Amino acid sequence: MKHKGLFLFLLSVFTFLKTEAQCAMCRAVLESEETQSAAKGVNDGIMYLMAIPYILVAGIGFIIYWKFFRAKTTKD
Description:
mainly alpha
């Protein structure tokens, strides 16, 4: 079971690195540009904005877990 969780985590990390997150309208407008530098910048910005909520939720979850685990060990 532990190996399955590790495999799913690694799979999600590597899948996340290869995704492109542009809406249909942004893609249509940015594909007409020849250098594609603006499209890459917009795509990087979207990925950055998408990652922040997940990082915050993971951090809050870790803090809650840490407080619960720490309180449980100090009572013993």
